[in-house]
């Protein structure tokens, strides 16, 4: 079965990201066709990238890198839950992506964004970033508005229509991650 990480992309105290990731997880676990786990970036406490060698070399030296790498390696696919900070993704999320390479590659990702414009600009930037890592990013994306999906800009009350988009996103992520399995296992070399 495909293992999917729902990654909380914000780390600040009082973040909305936890509620959004919880909503994704609650809906996702009802499917039964994949396993889902919330991965909280804040728990990994990654410093600004401090590895001497680029991640593509796989030569990790720091214990926090190895812990993060083992976690991400255990998944086949990802849902990035991202706010928009200054028209882009939060620095800690970009940093956490930069720490690794092979652990992301040949997997699938979908994006759930939130912000005044649904987090769409953060998502567009993340699409460029994950392209560099050979991650297959699906087209369906959930865009949650601070104006209409958060009561008084605070309590998360997503409009019903987002559930359909989330279902499509998860369908696509699971399908692409399953299709890419031959690359992750190296079976295509034998064919
Ligand atoms: C540093 C910073 C920059 C922000 N810039 C934007 C922005 O460019 N566009 C936007 O829609 N919202 C922006 N916001 C608002 C965030 O989308 C909103 O505060 C959201 O709740 C942040 O996610 P979080 O609560 O999970 O940290 C910004 C917030 C912060 C903290």
Give the CATH level 1 class.
Alpha Beta
Note the quaternary state here. single chain
Describe the main β-sheet briefly: 5 strands, parallel
Shape: globular
Order of helices and strands: EHEHHEHEHEEEHHH
Q: Would you identify the regions where 5 or more consecutive residues have pLDDT less than 50?
A: none
Q: Order of strands across the widest beta sheet? A: 2-1-3-4-5
Q: What average pLDDT do the residues reach?
A: 97
Report the end-to-end length measured between terminal Cα atoms: 23 Å
- Helix/strand structural class: alpha/beta
From the 3D structure, determine the CATH topology. Answer: Rossmann fold
Rg from C-alpha positions? 16 Å
The count of helical stretches stands at 8
Count of individual beta strands? 7
Helix content: 25-40%
Bound compounds, each kind once, are: flavin mononucleotide
Binned strand content? 15-25%
What number of structural domains do the residues give?
1
CATH architecture: 3-Layer(aba) Sandwich
Protein name: NAD(P)H-dependent oxidoreductase
InterPro entries: Flavoprotein-like_sf (IPR029039), FMN_Rdtase-like_dom (IPR005025), NAD(P)H-dep_reductase (IPR050712)
GO molecular function, one term: oxidoreductase activity
Pfam family, one: FMN_red
């Amino acid at each position: 079965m495909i293992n999917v990480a729902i990654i909380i992309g914000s780390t600040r105290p009082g973040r909305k990201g936890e509620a959004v990731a919880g909503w994704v997880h609650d809906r996702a676990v009802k499917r039964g066709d994949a396993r889902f786990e919330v991965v909280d970036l804040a728990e990994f406490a990654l410093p600004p990238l401090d590895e001497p060698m680029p991640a593509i070399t796989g030569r990790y030296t720091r214990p926090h890198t190895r812990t993060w790498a083992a976690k991400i390696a255990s998944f086949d696919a990802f849902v990035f839950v991202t706010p928009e900070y200054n028209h882009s993704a939060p620095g800690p999320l970009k940093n956490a992506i930069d720490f690794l390479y092979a652990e992301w590659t040949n997997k699938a990702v979908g994006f759930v964004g939130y912000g005044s414009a649904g987090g769409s600009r953060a998502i567009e930037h993340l699409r460029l970033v994950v392209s560099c890592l050979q991650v297959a990013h699906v087209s369906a994306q959930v865009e949650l508005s601070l104006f209409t999906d958060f009561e008084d800009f605070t309590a998360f009350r997503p409009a019903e229509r987002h559930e359909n988009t989330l279902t499509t996103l998860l369908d696509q992520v699971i399908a692409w991650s399953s299709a890419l399995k031959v690359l992750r296992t190296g079976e295509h070399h034998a064919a």
